[in-house]
Amino acid sequence: MEDLHVHIGEILARNARMYPQDIALVERSPAEKKRTEITWKEFDDRANKFANILAKKGVKKGDKVVHFMQNSIDWLVAYFGIIRTGAWVVPLNFRFTAEDVKYCSDVAEPMVVVFDEEFTGRIETIKDTLPTVKSYICVGKNVPAFAESFYSLMADADASPINAEITFSDPCGLYFTSGTTGQPKPILLTHSNMASACITENAHHRQTKDDIFILIPPLYHTGAKMHWFGSFVVGAKSVILKGVSPEYTLEAVSEEGGTIVWLLVPWAQDILLKFDSGALKQTDYKLSQWRLMHIGAQPVPPALIKHWKSYFPNMDYDTNFGLSESTGPGCVHLGMGNEHKIGAIGIPGFNWETKIVDENGKTIPQGGAGELCVRGNGVMREYYKNPEATAKSLIDGWLFTGDMARQDEDGFIWLVDRKKDIIITGGENVFPVEVEDFFHTNPNVKDAAAIGLPDERLGEIVAVIIEVIPGKTLTVEDVLKFCEALPKYKRPRKVFFGEVPRNPTGKIEKPKLRKKYSGMEEAFKI
Question: Domain boundary at 175, 190, 205, which?
């Protein structure tokens, strides 16, 4: 495949040839009561227009373009326009501060920055410190003086393909990790990586042209886009939902005929809470066609899925595990029909291999906990400009994930925690996810996070932050009683009641919690 002049953008061109008048994307903005849609031909033409705009500015193969936008049809138009030039797209987390954007830009050295108008203030703050940037393009109506208008440029642009010489092995994008542990690392992904994500996702969830995917998570992250890729590769319609709420999700599924939705744990919890309270009723929506709900990006409490299945007994469910370093989700997945193993992250994904190793990199016996390693076509090229980190994470084609896992007698892999999050208390290893899963079985708990806090005698102690379901009550005495079912060394020694912060991809922000609660005296100490 090395000499093939093909790339991920060719899938879009093929869809436009095969299904020119079929709807490709719908954008719903419920808060503004707006709905727009485009066909595959319109999508393809717009991507070509943006590619020609960039080419006229001198953007060519190997250049970098920072992409700093909220989910929208324009997000995907800009994305495909960038990669069609042969440039590397650098999609940034829309929650990044100006300093974060500068850090990523210093690493990437972009030639162009494309940004939504709402981010003008952040870009203006740093624009004079980005020497490699030659052009700023603003998507929106209120365009600052230092930038050009995306819409004005698109109005006069040529929609002809630019025919850049791109192969499967060429770099496609520079993705920065979500940054729950220090500065985000730049991950270099290729067109081959992207194609493998399309194939894996479609193999797992069997999308057809008739499926309709409701896309809610942020597109800058590999998770949302790579799940969409399973629909993209077969020319199926997808709906970009702007705004997250149980009502918005159910309305989109009902009104658009949605068949597949990928949710984060908190979003699924919110839907269930509305059903439980009677605030929302299933019968008020058309949901019978909704065939699959899947979750990824974080440990999934088994109690949550059992609760979900009580409302949707015939709906398929899948857990997805992946990293930006593995081109998003799918290197491990539970697999539809494996509800008897809910709690596990699953088995090796399509075209993937796995192994679990000890601290010396040796495969450990089944049942033991060690670091999960994966190998497949989705493994990144490298950590860009960071050979030391690359050498630690990529060994003989294996990606060392940094996640601790074990494999059961049936071959299913269970995540036990991040290496850096393991709590060592009195010489015993406690995996926070086990404590968190335990608290999720309590009907009054909306969310829970377990962290290690320093202790002079034990080294560390287990602390838990509990977010109580609104309208419910939970006392310290309740927690004490509830924790009697845990082995003594796993029981929290400190209990806090408060919000559990999660990043945009649903991961608990443990460093933030450790900083907030370390040394706090108002916690109840058991």
Answer: 190
